TrEMBL record:
Keywords from the named record: DNA recombination, DNA replication, Endonuclease, Exonuclease, Hydrolase, Nuclease
UniProt cross-references to InterPro entries, sorted A to Z: Calcineurin-like_PHP, DNA_Repair-Maintenance_Comp, Metallo-depent_PP-like, Mre11_N, SbcD
PANTHER family xrefs: COMPONENT OF ATP-DEPENDENT DSDNA EXONUCLEASE, NUCLEASE SBCCD SUBUNIT D
Name of one Pfam family that matches: Metallophos
Matching SUPFAM superfamilies: Metallo-dependent phosphatases (SSF56300)
Protein name: Nuclease SbcCD subunit D
One example GO MF annotation: exonuclease activity
Gene3D superfamilies cross-referenced by the UniProt entry: 3.60.21.10
Lineage: Bacteria, Bacillati, Bacillota, Bacilli, Bacillales
Domain of life: Bacteria
């Protein structure tokens, strides 16, 4: 059995107000081709189907086309869970009758306890669940964290797990030690979202979503697929793609995907950018951090004439070597204090004209204080 493990499609994602729907649609079409080319038997999508809980009609259309091509045209079983970006109610609409089409959608705690059985494999589809939801479901006030939540869910699964079969858990969560990026919406504040690896000991494989790099965790049976494309500029150097699990060969392989338009980040001077010396493609979505822009009016406008997909421009702060000195100033008069400050800043004394002006301003200030 060959299983394609996907995660974090984030259909409808925008980056600095730039819609990525066109690139996403092309990548999803490529995935359909990969299913055929690699002789995939089952497709698993580990959450965050959409980027928003209320997706646009365009995003929904791209998702529906993708699932139709996999499930109806290619006649492949598709297993889906909801992630923290998804609305369980919207994603799960009609899920009961969709099972008849071999399209399995898990969006609730109850869904997690009934495995999807295909040949000798039991898939336990555990969607993203908030601790408050688990606390209410299990009537257990001790459930405070995501680890508590998934511990309670997995304990219930372990009561009925069939060890004669290959048991695979699919979920959307943050394993302790995983690497995050800006595009992964924070599940909760602090460390209470962390789930420990030791929870998964009863499963042969665990297919996860939420973290956008396939290298987020190193383990023999727990895997992230990562997102299908780069969704923030701190993902520039991450691998993007999907995994193939071959249950006969007992192998796990990562297959990279090349997006129609790449994401790149570069630092340098404004002149470097104008002269195309930053080492980036003009056809990529770009972020620049540039120095020596103080003399340039409308630098973004001028740069976009060369780099039409420039999405973000930051001024690069130049590091200055500043020396600090302590001086005794409490016994200095106001005039002496100004003289000392001016000399420290310029290495020159006040000239006569400057001195007269300072004296005038100080005297006026004193007179104002006396008349208040």
């Amino acid at each position: 059995m060959r299983i394609m493990h996907l995660g974090d499609l984030h259909i409808g994602k925008t980056l600095n107000q730039q819609s990525l729907l066109n690139e996403q649609s092309q990548l999803l079409d490529e995935l359909v081709k990969q299913v055929e080319a690699l002789c995939v038997d089952i497709i698993v999508i580990a959450g965050d189907i959409y980027d928003r809980s209320i997706p646009s009609k365009e995003a929904m259309g791209i998702y529906e086309t993708f699932i139709y091509n996999l499930n109806q045209k290619l006649q492949k079983p598709v297993l889906i869970i909801s992630g923290n970006h998804d609305s369980p109610e919207r994603l799960g609409h009609g899920k009961a009758w969709m099972k008849m089409l071999n399209l399995y959608i898990s969006t609730s705690i109850e869904d997690a306890f009934v495995p999807v059985s295909i040949d000798n494999i039991d898939f336990y589809l555990v969607p993203f669940i908030e601790p408050a939801t688990a606390r209410l479901y299990f009537e257990d006030d001790t459930i405070k964290t995501h680890h508590d939540t998934y511990h309670a869910i997995i304990n219930r699964i372990e009561e009925r797990i069939n060890n004669a079969k290959l048991n695979i858990m699919v979920s959307h969560l943050f394993v302790s030690g995983g690497n995050t990026t800006d595009s992964e919406r924070e599940i909760s504040v602090g460390a209470i979202e962390n789930v420990h690896l030791d929870l998964f000991k009863s499963f042969d494989y665990v297919m996860l979503g939420h973290l956008h790099t396939p290298d987020a965790i190193k383990d023999d049976k727990v895997f992230y697929s990562g997102s299908i494309m780069k969704y923030s500029f701190d993902e520039v150097h991450q691998r993007k793609g999907f995994r193939i699990f071959d249950t006969e060969e007992k192998s796990v392989q990562f297959i990279p995907l090349n997006p129609p338009r790449n994401l790149e980040y570069a630092e340098g001077t404004y002149d470097d950018a104008i002269n195309k010396n930053l080492g980036v493609s003009q056809d990529s979505y770009l972020k620049f951090e540039l120095s020596n822009m103080g003399h340039v009016t409308e630098p973004m406008f001028k740069l976009k004439q060369i780099y039409p997909y420039l999405l973000e421009l930051k001024h690069k702060t130049e590091k200055l070597n500043i020396e600090y000195q302590q001086k005794e100033v409490q016994y200095l008069s106001q005039t002496e204090l100004v003289k000392q400050f001016y000399f420290d800043m310029t290495d020159e004394p006040l000239n006569d004209v400057q001195q007269e002006l300072i004296d005038l301003l100080i005297n006026e200030s004193r007179m104002n204080d006396e008349t208040d």
